[in-house]
Amino acid sequence: MESNDYRILLVDDEPDILEIVGYNLKKEGFQLFMASNGEDAVEIAKQEKPHLILLDVMMPGMDGIETCDSIRGIPDLSNTLIAFLTARGEDYSQVAGFDAGADDYITKPIKPKVLISRVRALLRRFTSQDQRKSTVLEYTNLTIDLEKYQVRLKGKKLDLPRKEFELLSLLSSRPGKVFNRDEILDKIWGNEVVVGGRTIDVHIRKLREKIGEGYIKTVKGVGYKFEV
Asked: How far apart are CA 62 and CA 60, in angstroms?
């Protein structure tokens, strides 16, 4: 998909941010919609069904967390990506954002080129949706065959125990999405007896030893995500 195929909704109560960020997004060819408060953002999102929403946290009335939570409750917007673009960089603020359903958390100030890079990285998920429907996931130097339970790194087959394979498959199924610990435990271990979150850490460490440090990122206080 080209830039002009993507719809982005920018939400911020500061006119300068709307102007500057909006200018850079439009310059890249994105279809841009803007809102200065949460209530309008929800209505515009319902009408335009954006691929990505860039959302401020601190806004009068309905703040960003409430707006994100509201949008996540709309079935037609289940595939919409939401990234907070805010000056609030505290850990607890980021945790609240991810708990509300955000896909990314970007702190201001940020250079335009870096912001565009983050936006494009998020939007690449849409170009990989068809890929994820396949039984083979292919990323840079890494291939995951879901049917054969095989992983290859630079063409070389890796021997992964079942739980490590399932954990890698889960994280790589949605690049960029942050999976929290409870979600990982539920989907990988289910009702099995688990010592605790340390179990996940051990499996992540073993995976990194085998596929390298670059693919699996730690989101402090939240969980883990897979990055291409």
From this structure: 6
- pTM above the 0.70 mark? no
Tokens of residue 154, six digits:
């630079």
Task: Say if CB 175 and CB 226 are below 8 A apart.
Answer: yes
pLDDT band at 176 (very low <50, low <70, confident <90, very high): confident
Euclidean distance between CA atoms 8 and 81, whole angstroms: 9
Task: Tell me how crowded residue 206 is: count the other CB atoms within 10 A of its CB.
Answer: 15
Backbone angles phi, psi at 139, to 5 degrees: -130, 180
What is the 8-class DSSP label of residue 210?
A: H
CATH fold group of domain 3-127: Rossmann fold (3.40.50)
**pLDDT band per the 50, 70, 90 thresholds, residue 79:** confident
43, burial (CB in 10 Å: exposed 0-12, middle 13-18, buried 19+): exposed
What pLDDT is recorded for position 191? 61
| pLDDT one-digit tens code per residue, 43-65 | 999 999 999 999 999 998 999 99
d(C-alpha 224, C-alpha 219), whole Å: 6
Topology of domain 131-226 in CATH is Arc Repressor Mutant, subunit A (1.10.10)
**Amino acid in position 157:** K
Cis ω before 109 (30° cut-off from 0): yes
